[in-house]
Write a structure and sequence with these properties.
Length: 332
């Protein structure tokens, strides 16, 4: 009887240890932009302290990380993968049982558009529409030519230079008096928004989210009155040789959490967390603005987010896991 009892206790202990180590070693891609490194650090902390994973961050970037996950099965998790950039390869990895889409990192998707400052729309709501913009083109003074109006486009060499240029053409903004201005760099484009805001001056141009700039400065995305024609956007608007671009709003870009199938099967509880974990662009814009203002890296931003946004992240996990994560936070 004693031997049977001892064996039962050993088996029970083994079962408990097996459950505790179910997650095991986990590698998480730490991408080289702020939103991605923030999410990666949040995942590492919650997986380590809430689920008992031995979680480690490894350097990553979209194409090399996606390719490595497909071909080598590592890293285990890509927290923020802009999947449209390699969708065929990722979908093939899913079909072959190598990868799994765990959920949307950004519930709104990556967002692009033409924007104006909110203070302009508050004075004249028509400026939230492209028709209103064209009717009031004289407001948007060109910095070098008083007879022209200014539209700040995407920097040369960026993919968005093509789409912004084609939409500028499709909406006949040149005929309305606008000139498409190259801001020179991402910093130049951001700086032009900051300068306009500080002076409360008109501004009209291209930008995207989530970004620190849209977290700091309230901007309104201009409605083209067209809806989204995703098929035309992909076949024409996004191509440099598009001869007859049509007006279409930018379709949202899919931003996913992608995991290896081996991880998904090995750690279903941790997978459930990743499936639930998602940020809106408004949330991320604010977090990115905080990171920039405080020159914070991903780890510091993770602590700030978990401490200040308990009502958000606790909805992603069970009460038991939330308790463990809160305890770990209290010990930092």
């Amino acid at each position: 009887m004693i031997k049977k009892l001892s064996l039962a206790l050993v088996l029970a202990g083994a079962s408990i240890n097996s459950y505790a180590s179910e997650c095991g070693d986990v590698t998480i891609a730490d991408m080289n932009w702020n939103s991605a490194t923030l999410i990666a650090n949040v995942d590492r902390f919650i997986l380590e302290h809430g689920y008992g994973c031995n979680a480690e961050l490894v350097p990553g970037d979209t194409m090399p990380t996606g390719t490595s996950m497909i071909e080598k099965g590592e890293p285990d998790i890509a927290p923020e993968l802009w999947s449209n950039s390699m969708k065929e390869a990722l979908d093939r990895g899913v079909e072959e049982g190598r990868l799994r889409y765990a959920g949307a990192s950004l519930s709104d998707g990556g967002e692009e558009g033409f924007w104006v400052p909110a203070y302009m729309v508050e004075k004249d709501p028509s400026l939230a529409t492209i028709a209103g913009i064209k009717a009031n083109a004289k407001l948007f003074t060109h910095p070098e030519d008083p007879d022209r109006s200014a539209f700040l486009g995407c920097p040369a060499g960026w993919n968005c230079q093509i789409t912004a240029g084609n939409l500028f053409k499709a909406m006949e903004l040149e005929d309305a008096g606008f000139e498409l201005i190259d801001p020179g760099s991402g910093a130049g484009l951001a700086g032009s928004i900051a300068k306009a805001y500080e002076r409360q001056e008109p501004w009209f141009g291209y930008y995207w989210a989530p970004t620190a700039i849209l977290g700091k400065y309230k901007m309104v995305k201009v409605d083209f009155g067209s809806g989204v024609d995703e098929a035309h956007y992909k076949s024409c608007t996004a191509n440099a040789d598009c001869l007859e671009p049509k007006v279409t709003m930018y379709p949202p870009s899919a931003v996913d959490t992608v995991v290896t199938e081996t991880f998904a099967k090995r750690a279903p509880d941790a997978l459930a967390y990743l499936e639930a974990r998602s940020f809106t662009n408004a949330q991320m814009n604010g977090l990115l603005a905080w990171m920039e203002d405080n020159q914070a890296d991903g780890e510091i931003a993770m602590e700030q987010f978990l401490i200040e946004n308990e009502s958000t992240w606790t909805t992603w996990v069970s009460p038991d896991v939330a308790k463990k994560v809160k305890q770990a936070l209290s010990e930092l």
